[in-house]
């Protein structure tokens, strides 16, 4: 039997994530001896034992690592055998000047939950219980190195008991920077009708009572405030919608636990794992017809965004308060604490001001939030993660790039904004910042850029923006460039989408045939793009449009975005269909509006030409009578997808591929004929998904033949549509082609900044 010893050095986020205990358990499992420890930038391990077990150890180090660990690289080298007789964790070493990766926030761990529920524990019902394996991180850090004085916990000096735990290498709270207890930690308090309630139990009783009575409570969480109400109370839900000025956009819910979530939704094995993931994202799940939540939570759609409690305060909200006769809630609406279109409230005074007309009760605490961070939103598609919004629990973890490059600031898009900073081979994407339409949002963007450039120690060598001159982020980048002298680069929207997909797969430097389908993006000609087939690479700067959807008109430009009924009329016009009497879209539009739209379509005045796939979905939704006006982005398309999922069989529809275009006439006339002969709209909706997917695949196949590309990428907001994504991808199953979809950053504009950053880095390295 050969015995060998290896030294392994692991870089990445491997601290404060339970990595060393995992290493010790793994070594034990495999009968290996040695030690492990950490310095500021790495975990180092020495193990010895049977060669086969050592190899197995190296393999499982990556595959079985704890959920919050991010291994950037691991190097292994053989060293002389020393004959250790056990495996132990040794003391930390400090490397002066090292810049660690910042950990994201981590949901309360099982050990802390046990203490929270244990009347004999000194942290029984303590709303801030945390340890090395859990608690706030990113949202409390004001500076690096990550030590208590550089967090918002600096205001709470440790008591003697907490200090002893903090200093004891054998304790679960060893070097846990936010550690605290009821004696030394922050406190919760409530404000009801202008008067303040103190004392944990009194505060929780007040909040639970208010929720039971149908009132709206603003709850301070990890990254900001939530607006909360009882999910089973339709009046409370409607009140919240009215006060928040958010008529239709789905609300997320938080359930007491996994079994409460399972009463609402179907949950597969991978979905259950993601719900319980330490990042505690909102997960989009299929709603059961028996779910006892108000219909107003997600009108018109069959998915429900569900998350589990992730702070001790959340857990206490769902637990009966001692001495109180109020039943704790099972399911709560939890939506971002802001007015529609404004940034998230994360400061007590700001919340008191901006949420005063929405919330009846405030449940707050005196721990400051250093960096606001919205909840993340994920879905599972074909057993894998599909990110919809990458934020809390993931930010500020880097996406690792294949090579070292310059320091870049990429400012992202206009809606669902994130920005991205690069340093060495890391790309740090910001938390979700939302729509940049308001001044407040732009101010929040500015603050966040300042915080993160400081935290990551980045001095940008270039600032990258979308080519669209109307984007506020484009204006901001121009001003930034003027002020600092840092060169401004602009990148075409869909080029950035494809680059983002390539970057997350480590494929910068290769060639990808990218299908970029989204709402709208500034094109390279006079049309608004959004249904594009782009060949990108092998140089990431090189892009060529090799196909697109047939252009059609958007009468009134942005007005058409809010009114899919106008897009429906435009599609009919484009396809020369004049016999439109009785069609749902024609019935739904007032005569005067229809006349105005038709004269615009005739003359072309006030019309923008577009190839947008998102608008095509909108137009079809209106043609089929699903949705004629929208109050949130992609509403019509989302409802069309939901309807399509209810169909048993697709209606037989088809779409022509001619040269480099997906042609509309056959598709639109097929939809009209289907409506006329009484085909159910659901079958037509599903048939449309099939027809567009088949035609898209056909267009890609032609481009594959013409270009020799063998990797296909699916990106853009339309690929949040899981039905469509699956149908498109199915065309290349067992074909030998590699089909890329998003798993790390969203396919929508939230992922755009990553693509901008890698293009900006390549352009900067090439030089002017
Ligand atoms: Zn813990
Ligand atoms: Zn204490
Ligand atoms: Fe886009």
Description:
It is a single chain. This protein is an alpha/beta fold and 768 residues long. The chain has 23 helices and 30 strands. The longest helix is centred in the C-terminal third of the chain and has 27 residues, at 681-707. The radius of gyration is 27 Å and the shape is globular. The structure holds zinc ion (ZN) (2 copies) and fe (iii) ion. Fe (iii) ion binds next to helix 13 and strand 22.
Q: What is the structure about, briefly put?
A:
The protein has 768 residues and is of the alpha/beta class. Helices cover 33% and strands 23% of the residues.
Descriptors for this entry?
768 residues; alpha/beta; twelve-stranded mixed sheet; seven-stranded mixed sheet; 23 helices; 33% helix; binds zinc ion; binds fe (iii) ion
